[in-house]
Write a structure and sequence with these properties.
With 284 residues, the chain is α/β, with parallel strands linked by helices. It is 45% helix and 24% strand. The protein has 13 helices and twelve strands. Strands 3, 4, 5, 6, 7, 10, 11 and 12 form an eight-stranded mixed β-sheet that branches. The two termini are 43 Å apart.
Length: 284
């Protein structure tokens, strides 16, 4: 499969039209149609179907789309690294990280590593659940996140990150200095699947509002507005300073925590081995 066929398919899918794909790729609609027929012949199945609105993926096309996207990312990475080698440069380290990590300790880690390796360059990608997909697709070399999401890879644990209750002021007595998990569960609770809160609480919440996003600041803003209580890891809270005065941060009892670290694919280049060893030194 050559990259022209792949790029043409993905453009047609994204734009929903052969004519729009042709315009973007500076070719003709007939050429796009022919390229798609050759790709479908090569794979032995129909990928696209024509609709009244343009073109759409078939069932086979939807099933193959994740692999096709991974192939596109891998081909792009090969071209970038080949260009670096032609210029006499080492390929950049592609890092995927939680936003809480990228907003707090990652800049310090990178600055320290660059002091010892002045020629190193980085490509940084921010995400949560998507990190494992990026790692599998070869879009990133290393993922910095938690064991729950990255434990199926070569995960190296480096630090514990404790969860703290985040409650609107006035929702609990001012004299309380800790909050039990049972007490938190009896408050209107803001649940964030992306921060894996449900995996870390023993008690079932009486009332829940689900906030499905990667943005820790959104969750904090909801709590600050009095919509409910929640719990967030210490590193996330650190990345959001200064915290709103309308919330209180209390240790949860019993303590619960996520395990942070890094994951790589099984076979990694010497450059990545050195970077991983450095992370263990400064973070472990």
């Amino acid at each position: 499969m050559d990259d022209i066929r792949l790029r043409t398919l993905l453009a047609a899918v994204r734009l929903g039209s052969f004519s729009k794909a042709a315009a973007e790729l500076h070719t003709t609609q007939s050429a796009v149609s022919q390229t798609m027929r050759r790709l479908e012949d090569e794979l032995g199945c129909a990928l696209l179907t024509r609709t009244h609105a343009g073109v759409a993926l078939t069932d086979e096309g939807r099933a193959l789309l994740p692999a096709l996207l991974a192939a596109d990312a891998a081909l792009a990475r090969v071209k970038e690294e080949a260009a670096d080698l032609r210029r006499g440069q080492e390929p950049p380290i592609a890092i995927g990280a939680f936003s809480s990590i990228s907003n707090t300790c990652l800049p310090r880690f990178l600055k320290g590593y660059q002091t010892a390796h002045p020629r190193v360059r980085y490509r940084i990608f921010i995400g949560t659940d998507i990190l494992s997909e990026w790692l599998l697709a070869g879009k990133i070399d290393i993922a910095l996140g938690d064991e729950m999401r990255l434990g199926n890879f070569g995960f190296t644990p480096l630090a514990d990150d404790r969860y703290f209750a985040v409650v609107p002021r006035g929702s609990i007595p001012e004299e309380k200095s800790t909050l039990t998990q049972d007490e938190l569960a009896h408050l209107p609770l803001l649940m964030a699947p992306r921060n894996a809160l449900g995996e870390h609480l023993e008690a079932q919440a009486d009332s829940q509002t689900i906030i499905d996003c990667d943005d820790d600041s959104t969750l904090l803003s909801m709590a600050a507005a009095g919509l409910g209580a929640t719990a967030m890891p210490a590193l996330s809270l650190k990345s959001l300073h200064p915290l709103p005065e309308s919330v209180r941060i209390l240790p949860l009892v019993p303590e619960t925590k996520r395990v942070l670290g890094y994951a790589t694919r099984k076979e990694i280049a010497p450059q990545m081995q050195a970077f991983g060893a450095y992370l263990k030194e400064v973070w472990g």
